[in-house]
From TrEMBL:
It is a multi-pass membrane protein. This is Solute carrier family 22 member 5. InterPro entries: MFS, MFS_dom, MFS_trans_sf, Sugar_transporter_CS. GO terms for molecular function: transmembrane transporter activity. The keyword Transmembrane helix applies. GO terms for cellular component: membrane.
Length: 515
């Protein structure tokens, strides 16, 4: 067949058909924003301490049985231990008064043998409170978060093959239905293991929605609309869903009900099946030219233009081009170096981005407002990056925003405890920097690879990004166990900033060597 853009040039660059398709496809991305990061609330750890059973204790001993520990210069109740119950009960029965008659630091301690008592100030229930994912089981929370991103990895590997075989539209809507079912089943999880397994399917279906809808939009829209769709539309509508998520979670504090409601958001997209067409480009590659012509003629009718009698012109078939693989990437020393550094950049930027996104529940202040601000910080990042990419060199932009992303987070460690709003503003600035860096590195990577290796290189970098997102929850987990504590937020922010500084060095090396 001839060139598709030339054959359909009579449709124009804008019009009712293109704008309708643009908004309908972008509405699908709102769904990915809803379901992408609800683990921030579902997996948040509320304040807790050992449960004290209903035994004969005086009020003084019941208040003193939980040891006091110092965290970041602040005295708080121990979350994972208590003074030995039998000893405390005997002291209480004998009439001793804690701190006056007994030195509490000399008493033997034990674990939370009777479970935990959780604060319901913020969350009525979530997976942490239901399955006691604290203390020795604390590692299960980042593991659960990582299963979502493992699903991203698998979904990104198979969605392209499925959409090439069965069509972009079918994969989008099958993935929407799969996401709905997976989130709904997850809300009925009877164990942590089932929750993780369903989270794997949630991640796979969600990334399939994103990739397939993104490809469908680039193939349906005109050149002018395509630029807006790929540069801004998909990202901004994802942010709309992301910004809406904390307010849904604010209204629904019980995790099973929250997931059931979020699963239903996918259902409202299913009627769009009758309004979003299949990709004519894909139909042509499958030899279904008549079906492609029907879609294009319907587009002409909606745009109020007249279609020619013959839309797709026959041309001489060209011999098949050579297919390149990952082996071709490592053959050349130059391309090998580019690939190695791009893999590190993509992985570390994703660690920083998702580390900051998942960390919002650990920041001081209202976790729902923190999540909203973290999502809102992405909106200007996408808009500004689109504008700056037209004006500035990639090297300066990438280096600048990597420094911003990591540098301001390092500054948080020196902010006094009384200036928590300053610390929060710096954290959101860091999120802005990481979002900008990701937008820029995506474009820069596509430009730096030769045309014949671009798809292979971008695919490898995308896989590295998934690995980075899988690691991100463990960066947060690691931050809770290091010696350094921030006044206002958990020290996992240090890890993200260090990754960003390393990235900046790699970026400069990459740019200076191959620009």
């Amino acid at each position: 067949m001839g060139d598709y853009d030339e054959d359909t040039a009579f449709l124009g660059q804008t019009g009712p058909y293109y704008w309708t398709t643009f908004f309908l496809l972008n509405m699908v991305f709102v769904s990915t924003g809803f379901n992408g990061l609800y683990i921030v609330f579902v997996g948040a750890t509320p304040k807790h301490h050992c449960l004290i059973p209903d035994v004969n204790l005086t009020e003084e001993w019941r208040n003193a049985i939980i040891p006091i520990t110092a965290v970041g210069g602040e005295e708080v109740q121990s979350q994972c231990s208590r003074y030995k119950l039998d000893v405390v009960r005997n002291l209480s029965a004998e009439g001793y008064i804690p701190r006056k008659d007994v030195n509490l630091t000399s008493l033997e301690q034990e674990g939370c043998l009777d479970g935990w008592n959780y604060s319901k100030e913020i969350y009525q229930s979530n997976i942490v409170t239901e399955w006691d994912l604290v203390c020795s089981n604390q590692w299960k929370v980042p593991f659960a978060s990582s299963t979502l991103f493992v699903g991203y990895l698998f979904g990104s590997l198979i969605s392209g093959q499925f959409s090439d075989r069965f069509g972009r539209k079918k994969v989008v809507f099958i993935s929407l239905a799969a996401q709905c079912v997976a989130v709904l089943l997850q809300s009925f999880s009877y164990s942590w293991r089932m929750f993780c397994i369903m989270f794997l399917f949630v991640g796979a279906s969600q990334i399939s929605i994103y990739i397939s809808a993104f490809v469908l939009g680039t193939e349906l829209l005109s050149k002018t609309m395509r630029v807006v769709f790929t540069a801004l539309g998909a990202f901004l509508f994802y942010c709309i869903g992301y910004m809406t998520l904390p307010w849904i979670a604010y209204g629904i504090r019980e995790w099973r009900t929250l997931l059931a409601v979020l699963s239903m958001t996918s259902v409202i997209y299913l009627p769009l099946w009758w309004f979003i067409p299949e990709s004519p480009r894909w139909l042509i590659t499958q030899g279904r030219v008549k079906e492609a012509e029907v879609i294009v003629r319907d587009a002409a009718r909606k745009n109020k233009v007249e279609a020619p009698p013959v839309i797709f012109k026959e041309t001489l078939s060209l011999p098949p081009e050579r297919k390149y693989t990952m082996l071709d990437v490592v053959k050349s020393k130059n391309i090998r170096c580019i690939t190695l550094m791009c893999l590190i950049l993509w992985m570390a930027i994703n660690i920083g981005y998702f580390g900051l996104s998942l960390n919002t529940s650990n920041l001081s202040g209202n976790p729902f407002m923190n999540c909203f601000l973290s999502a809102a910080a992405e909106v200007p990042a996408y808009i500004v990056s689109t504008w700056l990419l037209k004006k500035c060199k990639r090297k300066a932009l990438l280096s600048t925003f990597l420094i911003i992303g990591g540098g301001v987070i390092l500054l948080i460690q020196f902010i006094p405890a009384t200036l928590h709003y300053v610390a929060l503003a710096l954290e959101m600035t860091g999120k802005f920097g990481f979002t900008m860096a990701f937008s820029i590195v995506y474009i820069y990577t596509a430009e730096i690879y030769p045309t014949v290796l671009r798809n292979v290189g971008m695919g490898m970098c995308s896989s590295a990004a998934r690995i980075g997102s899988i690691i991100a929850p463990y960066v947060i987990y690691l931050g809770k166990h290091v010696v350094l504590y921030s006044f206002m937020c958990q020290p996992q922010l240090i890890s993200s900033s260090i990754f960003s500084v390393i990235n900046n060095d790699i970026s400069n090396l990459l740019c200076s060597g191959f620009e």
